[in-house]
Amino acid sequence: MSARYRFVIFISLLLVSFYIRANNNYPENTKGDSLNKNKNEATHEEDFNAGKMIIEHVLDSHEWHVMTIGDKPISLYLPVILYDNGKLNFFSSSKFQHGHSAYNGFKIEEKGKNKGKIVKTIGDTLETDTTAALPLDLSITKLTLSLFVSIFLLIIIFTSIARRYKKNPNSAPKGLQSMMEYLIIFIRDDVAKSSIGKNYEKYTPYLLSLFFFIFINNLLGLIPFFPGGANLTGNIAVTMILALFTFFITQFLGKKNYWKHIFNTPGVPWYMKFPIPIMPVIELIGLITKPFVLMVRLFANITAGHIIVLGFVSLILILGKISLGLGYGISVISVPLSIFMTFIELLVAFIQAYVFTLLTAFYFSAAVEEAHH
Amino acid sequence: MTTLLSVLLDASVYKPFATAAAALAPSFAVIGAAYGIGIIGKGAVESISRQPEAAGDIRASMIVTAAFIEGVTFFAIVVSLLILFL
Fold first, then answer.
1. CB atoms B74 and A297 under 8 Å
2. What are the chain B neighbours of A293 within 8 Å (beta carbons)?
3. ipTM score of the complex?
């Protein structure tokens, strides 16, 4: 690795290490103690709650739990950035102490319709100020940090491959280049060229970026330790943005033929279009549902896969609570099942990235296709 | 003293029924999906046996079509998750 990459990695690790700290027991005299949870939560002897653990692993949060050594959890406390009435608040999420205390007039809401979000409090207490609007939450959460990690990874991989292609363009590929070249050619030929046809080169940058972004993020979500393990493509906001990109690019690329097919579909009798425009309405609904389906398909596949693997693992812990022998016994079945499910998840990671890219290519080709008589 | 109407209007009484429905709903969706993917598998295997040279193309189409059907099945799961958690 060149000196420049080593330097960048060293600086990033240095910055990250400032945020990792072991979480000691909470001090007993926090402000607004009346709403404090019972002592059971402060130590780590609480019962294993499978549903809570699974939901925590699948959702976003303001800290990243890296590991638990013995009794102490080691977490990365990510910065909370709030924009509230013109004032920018910047502090570490360790000040929230897992919802036990408020800081600077903000706290994480525990119940009600704003559960999990940061709300303003009345003065110095832990009561929620229900009349105030929520502050604009621009924090670096677990998913944002995972997004930065995957962007970093993608930039390193692809700039190094591109540099190799530029330096010796006609030599045989080796190393990372040969691994990625198969996928790049696969997307270029079987997805872009076969769907779009003539001038497919215009669309390959976006299709390749989309495919590798989804694929690398799906794979990172399967790695159980830091910096993988954040469920980025399983978050519906992220997949919604990807589907919105596809939607807007398709509309911008739309030629006259494309709009003609939507509003004045050839071959459909006139009474479906004229007094009551049934056909255009159907086509417009189809226009909206196609990216919507893309969004839900990716989100549900990835999240369901994570939940299933976590469910098999928590089966061991649940039965182990009943009796130790039962826990050991079920682990003989549960561990191979988890490994099997993880292999299926690897396949699903690739297939979902491929299907998303393939459908995007189909929509592009429908948008730019010329009328054929 | 609560009347029958006020009990019926109190939606949270139906929470257990909603939870039961949300637990049963994906099973019906999965029945349809499994049947559909089985038909795809049958068609794919028969066509490979008729023309083994096209096995690569047929296998790719089979996997893609199965992914589409699974995508539709996940709608049912998402709806039941919405019932359970919203």
1. yes
2. 71-72
3. 0.75
Boundary residue ending a domain (A87, A120, A140): A140
C-beta atoms of B64 and A355 within 8 A: yes
DSSP state of A373: -
Q: What is the rounded CA–CA span in Å between residue A228 and residue A217? A: 9
**Domain span at A285:** 144-368
Q: Which of A199, A215, A163, A169 is nearest to A347 (CA)?
A: A215
CB atoms within 10 A of CB A350: 16
Does residue A136 sit in the same domain as residue A169? no
A189 and A104 share one domain: no
First-to-last C-alpha distance (Å) of chain B: 30
Residue B80, judged by CB atoms within 10 A of its CB (0-12, 13-18, 19+), counts as: buried
Closest CB to A358 among B64, B72, B74: B64
Count the domains in chain A. 2
pLDDT tens track for A233-292:
988 899 999 999 999 999 988 888 888 888 888 888 888 778 888 888 888 898 898 899
**Interface contact A190, partner B, CB < 8 A:** yes
Same domain as A259, residue A172:
yes
Q: pLDDT tens digit string along A101-146?
A: 777 777 777 777 777 778 777 776 777 777 777 788 888 888 889 9
Residue A373 lies in a domain: no
Q: How many Cα atoms occupy the beta-carbon half-sphere of B80 within 13 Å? A: 19
